[in-house]
Please model this.
Amino acid sequence: MRLIRRLTQGPNRSLGLGLLALVGTVLTGCAKASELPQSPFDTAGPVARAQTDLMTLSLWFAGGIGLFVTVALLFVVFRYRDKKGNDKSVPKQIQGNHKLEIAWTLIPIIILGIVGVPTVQTAFATRATQDPNDLHVIVTGHQWWWEFEYPQLGIVTANELYIPTDKDVQITLKSADVIHSFWVPKLAGKMDVIPGRENHMFFNAEREEEFFGQCAEFCGTSHANMKFRVQSLTQDKFDAWVKARQAGAATPTDPDALAGMNLFMGANKSKANCIVCHTIDGTNAKAKVGPNLTNVGARSTIGAGLVENTKEHLMQWIRNPQSLKPGNKMAAHPNLTEQELEQIVKYLQGLK
Ligand code: CUA
Model:
């Protein structure tokens, strides 16, 4: 408290207030992430752990050297500052001192060796392979959402990636438009998603958990709203999920949901024509402009991790997507009545 009082009063008041504002901003930046922490230090798999261990090792050496240099610099600056009565003659010259030359050549070689060997080992250990026994996922970054395709399983989904635990998942990264970056901090370091080329990485989740992911490369208006989730499931549960997904969507029996489905499929194009952009497996909706919605009712969020998947949010999203996510490419639907919106939402929520 005394420190805060001293910072906010007295001669350095504006500097102190500015400092407090900065600290506050930084601290609140951490606060929101607490709902689903995405710290690279809380690792949940071997790839992230190897990378974190390497980073920690480098950090100790870099921090130690930084500290040593800072202390030595401050010592020299204060000890030998220009004072009245100082000896102004040129100090003793030590150029060509063999012991010193050998010491400051050897020490960096040893430190670089200690850091360099595990760096090369980690680079090889975390390198993606094309092992056909692993699960393969093609991740495509779009402005501003993620598409996940499982080529071995014939499944496409969006924004929520399901993976089995204790299995290497080989990721191929593609972009549909601009540069993005795919990052699930607890599972692996980030990797750029670049138009016109494929990047490869892999990870392995050791436990059942819902992991938080985020686009980590500025990619336009809603870059900050380009989030995703990775849900790891035990192999049994994952197999059940695959089976349910491969079955496709069933035609709803509820009359409201059925009316919603007809609207979705373009029965009244002046109101809605969702099939020009979206796919729902097992129906006539086969377009690939927007996210695949086959299991949209099972997703915990909509709009790429933007808001909770509730009836109200879905209705707002369909009526006026810009009001939730600036710049996104989904069309608005001002002509739908409240009842028609509810019908479409009922249909979508039934897709699990
Ligand atoms: Cu995609 Cu930032």
About this structure: The pocket of dinuclear copper ion is lined by residues 141, 144, 180, 215, 217-219, 223, 226 (CB under 6 Å). The chain is about 35% helix and 20% strand. The chain has two domains: 37-64+100-233, 255-349. The chain has a mean pLDDT of 87.
